[in-house]
C-alpha cells in the first residue's frame, strides 16, 4: 500500500537541518526504526524530484516554451535528477567503504550512512531548487554549499558518534565526497547525453 507523502514534515525537517542542525540530528537519531530506514523514499527522492521540477519551471519561465526549449527543459531536468540520484548512491557507497575506519562503535552501515548522506544533502537540495528557479543564483550556490560541511560535522558527531580526534578529517572527506559525487555523475550524464541526442 502506498503512503501519502507528508510535504509539511519534509519542509519542516529541511528547515530544521538548515536552521538548527544539532537539534535536527538529535531528532533524526531518535526516529523510529521504520522512519530512519526510509530516508530515501521519505526524504531524498521527494527532494530530488523538487529539484528537477524547479529546474524545469525555472527554464520555462526564463526561456519560454517552444520545441527547442522543451528539449532543453527536459534534458536539464533529467540531468539534475540523475546527478543527485546517482550522487546520493555513489556517496553512500564511498562513505560506507571509507567510514568504518573512523567510528569507535560498529555502525549500522547502510542505515547510518544513508541518513548522514541523505540529510546532509539538504543543502544541495535547497540550493538546487533555488538555482533551478533562479539561474542567476549560481554564485551564491558555490558559497552556501560549504554549509554542508557544518551539517556533516554535526551529523557525524551526533548520528555516527565519530570520536573528536577523527571528526575533522572524517567530516572533510565525507563533505568532499557528498559535494563531488553529484558533479561527477552529472558530468558523465551530460557527456553521454551529447552523443545520444
Tally of helical segments:
10
Mean pLDDT: 84
Strand content: under 5%
Number of strands: 0
Main sheet properties? none
Helix content percent band: over 70%
- Computed Rg: 17 Å
Q: Structural class, please?
A: mainly alpha
- Low-confidence stretches are none
Question: Can you tell me the overall shape?
Answer: globular
How many domains, as an integer?
1
* Helix/strand order: HHHHHHHHHH
Span from first to last CA?
A: 38 Å
Which key features would you list for this structure?
197 residues; mainly alpha; 81% helix; globular
Topology (SSEs and partners):
Layout: H1 7-19, H2 21-29, H3 33-36, H4 39-63, H5 67-99, H6 109-120, H7 122-133, H8 138-144, H9 147-158, H10 164-196
